[in-house]
Amino acid sequence: MELLLLVWRQYRWPFISVIALSLLSAALGIGLIAFINLRLITLVDTSLTVLPEFLGLLLLLMAVTLGSQLALTTLGHHFVYRLRGEFIKRILDTQIEKIEKIGSASLLAGLTSDIRNITIAFVRLPELVQGIILTFGSAAYLAWLSGKMMLVTALWLALTIWGGFMLVSRVYKHMASLRESEDKLYHDYQTVLEGRKELTLNRERAEYVFTQLYLPDAREYRHHIVRADTFHLSAVNWSNIMMLGAIGLVFWMANSLGWADTAVAATYSLTLLFLRTPLLSAVGALPTLLSAQVAFNKLNKFSLAPYRAEFPQPQAHPHWQTLELRDITFHYPDNSFAVGPINMTLKRGELVFLIGGNGSGKSTLAMLLTGLYQPLSGQILVDGQPMAADKPEDYRKLFSAVFTDVWLFD
């Protein structure tokens, strides 16, 4: 998965340390089962030291398992902290036209829903890692006990995993559709909140927004979340039933086929019971990782500006004299509106009014003039120099503006 590969590239050595702790935890868990099999079942050790040794192994297993899980979740939270910060910085560095094209609703969904899903995935990731490692470790121990029984059990578990994978793949499909539905819902929320005055005055428009825009999007979201939960719960119950079936299969092979004695069958069953909870937790955690991958892909689809840790330090030009727009043209991405070519010269100290009707291009010209929009052709010259193109941060530092959709900072 691309998300885990990114974590690997950014936190390679901490990630290796976490995996090592997880391997140690799995080894201790299997060692505890071996201790029970050897000392309590096979040898029936009645000495006074066996209980302290058993309790010591339990405490050691708890400490190592807790340590590995805390290390992995801490690593995940550091990654999410870094990802969120980089995403915010990329938004700040992206051109206004691109931000307006994406839409604030989609970006808000990315900052809330997508980041939350990635965070949840890293909270559940230890369960997935533990489940996978314990499955392979337990398989090796079972093969050591009885090769023939292990082969049949492995086929049974392979069928279990395949069935779970088929169900989880459907979960992923609906998770991807669910994320698109969330974008639509956030847009509906934005319409209701930002258009509240207009919708209060025009109740017919309010009814249209609710019945024709919001309700269809809400139903679509409900459909996909119900389907995703259905397949997820089916995968969990499938795994649960198949693990219980594996225990019955083990005793059938031992007693009916004579492949092992009762003690080995009991150890097999104990190991499968030990494996059941981590395996079910892993199956339960997998959809959160799939959802996080969908969220990560969605964040990448925004195509924001590349991440740069530093902020530019624009240079002031307090002594400029003229600002010239030469053959400036601009049109919006959907080609719905265009301005230009514009030729005008502003001199220092002049007071200029932009006058025109609605839709005449006043706001677009102001955005071009302040450097918030980049012209498709032509030049903006400051004292005869193309500062707007060569040094956009320096050029924008020349301006201060109060927009109609003003934001009051704290």
TrEMBL record:
Keywords annotated in UniProt? ATP-binding, Membrane, Nucleotide-binding, Transmembrane, Transmembrane helix
Where does the ABC transmembrane type-1 domain start and stop, copy by copy? 15-291
Q: Which NCBIfam families does the entry link to?
A: PRK10522.1 (NF007813)
Domain of life, per lineage: Bacteria
Q: Which organism is it from?
A: Klebsiella michiganensis
Q: What is its main location?
A: membrane
**Which residue ranges run through the membrane?**
12-36, 56-80, 125-144, 150-169, 231-253, 273-296
- State its location(s): Cell membrane
Any one Gene Ontology MF annotation carried by this entry is: ATP hydrolysis activity
Q: Give an example GO cellular component term for this record.
A: plasma membrane
A Pfam cross-reference name? ABC_tran
Q: Lineage of the source organism?
A: Bacteria, Pseudomonadati, Pseudomonadota, Gammaproteobacteria, Enterobacterales
PANTHER family according to UniProt? ATP-BINDING CASSETTE SUB-FAMILY B, ATP-BINDING_PERMEASE FUSION ABC TRANSPORTER-RELATED
Membrane topology (UniProt): Multi-pass membrane protein
Name of protein: Multidrug ABC transporter permease/ATP-binding protein
The UniProt record lists the keyword Membrane: yes
